[in-house]
Amino acid sequence: MAAVGAAPLLPAALPSTARAVASDRSGFTLVRDGAAVDVFVDAADDAAVIRAAGDLQADVERVSGVRPELRHTLPERATRLILVGTIGASPVVDRLVAEGRLDVSRVKGLWEASVTQVVDRPAPGVDRALVIAGSDRRGTVYGIYDTSERLGVTPWYWWADVPVVRRDTVTLPTGTFKRLEPSVRYRGVFINDEQNLTTWSHRTQEPDKNIGPETYKRIFELLLRLKANYLWPAMHPYSDFFNKHRENPELADRYGIVVGSSHPEALLRNGVHEWAPWAEEHRGADGSLPLYDYTVDPGVISDYWRARARQNAAYDSSWTLGMRGLHDSALETRHATTVPEKVAVMNDIIADQRRILAEEIGTAAQPQIFIPYKEVLELYNAGVQVPDDVTLIWPDDNHGNMRQLPTEAERRRQGGNGIYYHLSYWGRPKSYLWLDTTQPAKVWQELRRVYEHGADRMWIFNVGDIKSIETGLSFSMDMAWDVDRWGADDVEDFLAEWAGRQFGRLHGREIAAIRTEYYRLAAELRPEFIARGLLSAVHHGDEAGHRMGAYDRLLKRVRALGTKLPETYRDAFYELVEYPVHGAYLMNLKYYWADRNALAVRQGRGAGTNRFADLAEAAHADEVAITERYNTEVAGGKWDGIVNPYPSQIPKAPGRPSVTRVARQDTSGLGVASEGNETGVDRALSFSSYTRDRRFVDVFNTGFLAMDWTAESSHPWVRLSEAGGSFTEQTRVWVEIDWARVPEGTHDATVAVAGAGQRVEVPLRVRNDGERARRRVRGFVEAHGYVSMDAVHADRRVARNGCRWRTVRGLGRRSGAVEAVPSTAVPVTTDFTTEAAELRYLVRFATTGTFPVTVFRLPSLDERGHRRLALALDDQQVTVLSGQAIATGNRGDAWARNVEDGVEKLTATVTVTEPGDHVLRLFMADPAIAVDQIVIDTGGLPTTYLAPPESYHPVFSPDPVSVEGLDSPDR
């Protein structure tokens, strides 16, 4: 692609704390007229810097087609030069610093900081140089990759096939450009549950290995381009353990990556692969195999750990202390059965490991970490003594909710605190391994809370196979570098900027909007969590159909955008945008049609039953086909095996749903089921002049022969989408009210459906309070037996005692959620009306009584505290609602339901003694509580997976007309 006309496709601005602090118009030209500026790095600089300088050399060639020379001695004469060096390791850089010609303020002496600056006459014979200088070796490496990004080479150029826009002339601004010290010291990933990555690696990278050095080279480079510095390598039985190939730790050290190990892999030992052969070689005197149980064979285990410490002593490593069972199982202690006994054993284990590290490595054995994961957290809370210089790594509940955060005393620890956070997970209650489905706003909310509680030493993200987590990983690393860059209102701005860097500024905002809606739908229900019968096809205008309609509209946006991109972007677009949306759509679609098939059986449909079965199976076949395309066609088959919802050895996404077919009968018959009824028409269709609803009536054939049908309404102000015709299967008739013609008051009406010698009357209940009442109302209005409110739509917010409720855009099931902040605030337990931050919602009730109020709280945990909020109506007594604070790890209990649904429903009651205007008040009790929706059941509200549509509000929801669902055979 020529540079002319390509500007809208050029990358957006560089992210994070890399900042241009001055500029002029002249620019620094790297390539012109087929010649590229040489790259110099001193041969005495760190190997990681010299290697990354080679990547800069390659990146310049990717952009321009011209490869610069990589030099280790200064040229005798040069007009321009790229000069790369680390402060303290590059004599020429140190001289420029000493002379005051290189601005290293807020860089020198800091962690991984860098400066990029144009310097005139930096060395004899060199007129001008673009100097890239780092405070340490990784600081220099990040400065190099910053330059690559400014040239237009995204970190995902290889891992997501993002094309590099070619230019004949390559020029960078001359302003001083700094990347300041990161918010979090160690930032990295855990490659886990990596069967697909292993399959792909074996097929395409190293046929004689199952993830080896060639694959890790690609991973290390990606991490550094993302400004990460830390790795827990792949560790499952189907992958080669990291130390099996001696090149792996050597490569990591040469790239500048710190290698650690996960919670079950003490002192870099992979128990899955390494313990059995070690045990075989260290049988007891009686020939018995030692056990991986410190209360049984401590000496053999200690020697096992010592051997690895000695082997990896020379590398930049992170040392995991403590112990669990082999392959992520619970700690085994045959001779310690009580919690206090197990605490004592853990203390002995840590002391032994510390002694090993001191003897084999000395003071260089840093960082050391302790991960209180699962049952080890219970032992830690019961009294495990972790040395002060060891970093505590706090785990989430595997579903993105931090279990507990450091206390004030723990925040003062010399070793500090970090987190282990899941963007992908295998385990109870359900796994999500296929697609990137955790909302960035959710990640933002939890990471912001983590940072405010002083956990800033190490952030590790479980990213599964890497592929499909591209966006979530990029956002997490961006947060880890500069936690203050993105606020509660602008997480979508990250998506726009990130998409702009991949696909050009012209398309960044639209891709961000697509991804935001994709994440919102996943927040309602992750595609991996879909199951039979979760969503209603009969209530609230077809709850499941509305959701599928949203997916359908989203996929149409994706396809429309895809046609606007040049052909060179199609592979990247498929990987990063189209496949995730299309895959999630089809996973939902096949279960939607399967549920419609099951409902059709209950309703006694004929030909339509089989049609729904066909549609369910076709959706599954389409899903298989798009995955096949990803693996065999995209990028010429480069990603063979990398994406698979149905791997053989780890949890699978829901597969083909079962369906039922009915035998053909050469008959016809009339069937009618109106909205709100699985079968029949007993529940009347409800209409309100506030919400101005649209309701459906399904008219269907109980046989297989074509039949004629008609529909007519009892009143002229009842409008029907169709009044009759002929069908073999079914049709869906939409019923609306002409509010300009209907008299004020409450009316009963009917829609009569006739066909095949039968007639069915569908009852309607229509309430018209008049246009004047609709214009004058101030708050949410009760209708259809409920009031439904998005929590962000408070009529008033009251801050108290330094606390407030803030909106977090893109969080939860709707457009955003409200969160009680600051996260470090002191909980409120009494005097809520005068002490607690408050939300107020104006509500107009048409009925009186004592009504349930359900608050949809986004799950969050505090295993050493509580998860509470409070509510009241008007000046009535305040009720405290207590949410689940502990992650139990069990299937089917409250915590499991919360993480599967993405919400916790907390219910209290309020009493309305008089119809009219009232104020529902929501109070903060514990900080960092996030609320998504609030629903008041005033009578007859059906139980559904999602909250009902938002009620009428003159400002926030002035026209809550039901949107159409999926185009289907019911149309």
From TrEMBL:
<dbReference type="InterPro" id="IPR029018">
    <property type="entry name" value="Hex-like_dom2"/>
</dbReference>
<dbReference type="InterPro" id="IPR042301">
    <property type="entry name" value="GH115_sf"/>
</dbReference>
<feature type="domain" description="Gylcosyl hydrolase 115 C-terminal">
    <location>
        <begin position="779"/>
        <end position="950"/>
    </location>
</feature>
<dbReference type="InterPro" id="IPR031924">
    <property type="entry name" value="GH115"/>
</dbReference>
<protein>
    <recommendedName>
        <fullName>Gylcosyl hydrolase 115 C-terminal domain-containing protein</fullName>
    </recommendedName>
</protein>
<dbReference type="InterPro" id="IPR041437">
    <property type="entry name" value="GH115_C"/>
</dbReference>
<keyword id="KW-0378">Hydrolase</keyword>
<dbReference type="GO" id="GO:0016787">
    <property type="term" value="F:hydrolase activity"/>
</dbReference>
<dbReference type="GO" id="GO:0005975">
    <property type="term" value="P:carbohydrate metabolic process"/>
</dbReference>
<dbReference type="Pfam" id="PF17829">
    <property type="entry name" value="GH115_C"/>
</dbReference>
<dbReference type="Pfam" id="PF15979">
    <property type="entry name" value="Glyco_hydro_115"/>
</dbReference>
